[in-house]
Amino acid sequence: MGKMNAGLMSSASDDWGTPQAFFDELHAEFGFTLDVCASARNAKCPRFFSREDNGLEQTWTGTVWLNPPYGREIGLWLRKAVESWRGGATVVCLVPARTDTAWWHDYAALGEVRFVRGRLRFVSAEGEKSSAPFPSAVVVFR
User: Fold this and answer.
1) Domain count across the chain
2) CA dist list (Å): 97 to 28, 40, 51, 113, 125
3) For residues 60 and 84, is the Cβ–Cβ distance under 8 A?
4) What is the dihedral sign for C-alpha 58, 33, 17, 103?
5) pTM tops 0.70, yes or no
6) Which domain holds residue 101?
7) What is the DSSP letter of 60?
8) pLDDT tens across 38-70, in order?
């Protein structure tokens, strides 16, 4: 396993951007208004919450895009997605398809699950692309 894939597997680096073409297809379907977990470099919407904004502490409204950090705190992001959905937002999440985890059963399974065929190629903060060493899923709460 290469250095980049090792970073994707762990929480060593959680700043991996969504592949643009993949996002564009979902944006055409949903029309996102807010990216709740982004940086100025990789934000997918003009309105976004950065690490400094701490999206977990913000109110999510409208049609929300979420590509959360894939480390230990992913369950917190999915819980917030469910809470926001119950509050009236549409939330679309890109997550690893880790069907053996508590966060998957507690939160992701409540949404519409779309398994991604093949492996996505994420973009690092340095602009390098690396295939995910895990399958992905899109979870839609609407």
Assistant:
1) 1
2) 23, 27, 24, 9, 23
3) yes
4) positive
5) yes
6) 3-141
7) P
8) 999 899 999 999 999 999 999 999 999 999 998
